[in-house]
Amino acid sequence: QGFKLPNKMELSEEHALGPPPRECLCPTLFPGATFKGTQSSDSNNRAYEVSVQIRQVDLEASTLSGDLKILGLTDQYPELTTFFEAEIVGDQFSFATHRWNATLDIDQQHWRRFAAFQQLFPDDAHLPQVYNFRANDFLFMRWKEQFLVPDPTIRSIKGASFAGFYYVCFCRSKGTIDGFYFHNASEWFQSLRLTFQPEPRMACSLR
Who is most buried in 2, 26, 81, 130, counting CB within 10 A? Predict the structure, then answer.
């Protein structure tokens, strides 16, 4: 079943522009929230400008979605925007990926690159089986790009791969996102560093 892109009305007529309500679990992670930063590649010593806008957040289902825009990655698309869907590690999803060519060893290598993961699980030889993101400052996620925006029929571009995914760590208190891109045929550990942009946006809408 295909994913239906939400329009502005679906993001909500009932929520006024402004900061999210205080009771929101993630005050910087809500529909309309924007993050900006870079994606860095060690192989060519380059950093690409990246911005992310969150479309939907559903903490009950442990999912979210958004748009990721990267500048200068390809000549054909100097400004490339993709739609992504995310799994939040917790009630519904574990640290083990079990697809996208990610083995348990690959999962371990990537998760352990996050200082927050090492702090929470310093001695675990295996991936943790349980994680309660509601009781912690960090949300661990997988972001999977699905297609080009605004044309969902385009799923591959020369010079840019959608086949992999991002391992992501979001810090609620700081409003920061760190990530590492994985695709077995691409450079490993390309790093993503994003910071919340405190502008008036949609209020948090959680189901």
Answer: 26
